[in-house]
Amino acid sequence: MAWLSASDAAKALGIKTSALRTRAQQGKIDRKDNLYFVDEKTPKKHETALDDVEHDDANGYGSGYEYDKARDKYIFALKSKAQAGRPFVVDGDTIRAAIAAYSNDGSKASLNEICRTHGWSRPTAREIFRALGKTHDSLPFSDEEIAERDEDDLGEDLIRLKEERVARKAEAREWNETKKTPRRHATSITSSPTASRRSCPSRA
User: Fold this and answer.
1) Helix (H, G, I), strand (E, B) or coil at 49
2) What's the confidence (pLDDT) of residue 129?
3) What is the pTM assigned to this prediction?
4) Which stretches does DSSP call E strand in 45-97?
5) Conformational region of residue 126, where left means phi above 0, alpha means psi within -120 to 50, and beta covers everything else
6) So where are the chain's domains?
7) How many CB atoms lie within 10 A of CB 100?
8) What CA–CA distance (Å, rounded) separates 177 from 175?
């Protein structure tokens, strides 16, 4: 191998360019101008996944993440988890479920609902979504899903998620109407003239 541009070096190592820059800052990859030296001895992604989380402050915490495809793990460097002294690792299924739930095209869940479901604190949830670059307006899929899955499959899942959301709304509306019906019935009986006459004592 030889000196490569950032994009070519990242592709050769199977990592993101942000992770490539992190390795260069850590002295794990030689950098000269805008070129990076890569050869057969340079560790690949799966060999240094825990070290590839993007850092952007002096304490080593940042807004990036690394995805370990072999283990289906998302690896974050979070300030809210600084006391643990190690990266925060989350299962891929958990992250995908959180993204789908948080999206307006998914369940439209609030941050508090996400926290209750996954046992995260609000700061941790905020940091995770910031690292993933996800908001309520984002699609209900991880970047890795969008990159790897077929567009038709993603489209079918998007339709299914919307159908499920519509069904939940309809069920909630029906349940609310069901709860209101007995109250209306009771009110109508209480306020009816017949009921009033029955409740009055008879005169001697």
Assistant:
1) helix
2) 93
3) 0.56
4) 65-68, 73-76, 88-91
5) alpha
6) 1-47, 91-179
7) 20
8) 5
Q: Which residue has the higher pLDDT, 53 or 150?
A: 150
Residue with tokens 């309520």: 136
CA distance 50 to 76: 9
Q: What integer pLDDT is reported at residue 27 of this predicted model? A: 72
H-type alpha helices, the chain: 6-13, 17-25, 92-102, 111-118, 122-132, 143-148, 151-191, 193-199
What are 154-160's contacts with CB under 8 Å, separation 24+? Answer: 158/105
pLDDT in tens, 170-183: 887 888 888 776 66
Residue 20's alpha-carbon distances to 36, 86, 146, 154, 196, in angstroms, are: 9, 20, 22, 29, 82
Contacts of 115 (CB under 8 A, 6+ apart): 121, 122, 124, 125
DSSP 143-190: HHHHHHS-HHHHHHHHHHHHHHHHHHHHHHHHHHHHHHHHHHHHHHHH
